[in-house]
Design a protein that fits this description.
Radius of gyration: 25 Å
Distance between the termini: 24 Å
Number of strands: 12
Structural class: alpha/beta
Order of helices and strands: HHHHHHHHHEHEHEEEHEEEHEEEEH
Oligomer: single chain
CATH class of the largest domain: Alpha Beta
Number of domains: 2
Shape: globular
Largest sheet: 6 strands, mixed
Helix content: 40-55%
Amino acid sequence: MERLANRILLTTGWKRALLAFCAGAFAVLGQPPFQLFIVCFISFPILVWMLDGAVARPTRSLVAAMWPAFATGWWFGFGYFVAGLWWIGNALFVEADQFVWLWPFAVTLIPAILALFYGLAAVVARLLWSDGIGRIAALALGFGLAEWLRSFAFTGFPWNAVGYAAMPVPVLMQSASLVGIYGVNALAVFVFCLPAAFAGGRRQAGFAALSVIALLGAHVGYGYWRLENAADSAADAPLVRIVQPAIDQSEKWDAAIRGEIFKTLLDLTLEAGTGGKRPDIIVWPETSVPYLLTEAPQAVAAIAETLVPGQLLLAGAARGGEADPSTGQRTYYNSILVLDGDGVIVYAADKKHLVPFGEYLPFKALLEKLGMKAIAAADRGYSAAERRRTMTLPNGMVVLPSVCYEAIFPYAVAASGDKPTVLVNVTNDAWYGDTPGPYQHAHQARIRALETGLPIVRAANNGISAVYDPYGRQLDALGYGVRGAVEAPLPDSLAATWYARNGRLTLSAILAFFALAATAGRVRGRNRH
């Protein structure tokens, strides 16, 4: 082990960059759909050993001194995000005549930007670096801060945070109810890096082995205990049906087949369910209806004929707003509309966190002159909601809605209004085809249930449509490419989790612990020398 560590430590030039890139790319196998978290016990020790050798020539410039560490972390991140996000480019082939030229930029520029955060993580770690376990605490601190920053910097894109690799199955997800994904990120990196200490002598190896056993044991043990004591839902729980029409994205807004698409939605809504009971709530996915539902009275009338009194439909749909007084241009929203059994739209919740370049165009005035437009919003673009709100339904249920990738942001499950009893996420992952993207998206949404103690109902046009209980257990689901409907009794919500009540305090405590451990390791190392 020591010989291998030394060989990695001494790599230079293009070999060092390539090794860091490959180590990062290999770590992606820990994410869905593979979920081979064991690979992270290889990738992250390689990163530790590479940072051991990330030493600049003596210089008075802090920037120059930190550059080797930054470059190592950046190449690791670049490999991680290229391998983990290459599928983003598939969206550009839907309207290839307009957007395919952007493909090389999408699959390289986005990972290059995201890799900056991992470069920063390496710099933070290197500032507190030592030759013992303390350096592993330093790297855990660096990644904990970097993943937290990635959730909001540049509008935020916390996709494939490292911690998701540590939560592949429900028994390993329960820690999220205590520390959330941000806390799991830092703890997971610490555990994944510990095998690097096996090259540091018996004392370090022994401490690392005990730490791995203790932390993994706590992770598994708490998950087992929590699931063993999980409460069952009420027998009279509302029955929810998810409709997955599996419409090809290239056909979704085709005027020639609008009627056929709408009929598919109605047919799946009416489809006979299990036990002969009609569902209480039906959920259609993001932008399910191929026109503005609020301005299509015939479609609303057809929905009213399909529903029965007491039923509710939550439909993802584009919604037209008022014209902007300053420009005269009309606003449009990516929304969830609630219709009752009479076909009356009783509530509308608009998406707040829009996708840059997908639903709106940053630097619009400049980029429109260059012929660019938002990829997923036709020529109109979407406007963001002023704030996120809960929806109190006529049956008393309180829904916290999220549209598409809003579900990957933990803070998006906090909203004004009544205390929610269920999370509802509507999405359209057909943009990305049968790639890792839809599986990654579903897994990240699933963890929001653990963090909040709320069940989550997820409806996808194509992707993974599912009902998860507050413990992350899947009650039923439809896989990618399957057209159909799935239904399940809606699980009861739990009392607010520790994370929901104390998330920021908990993350601060974890990061402070790693900062102190890293500092202590560095001071001890200086005293020895």
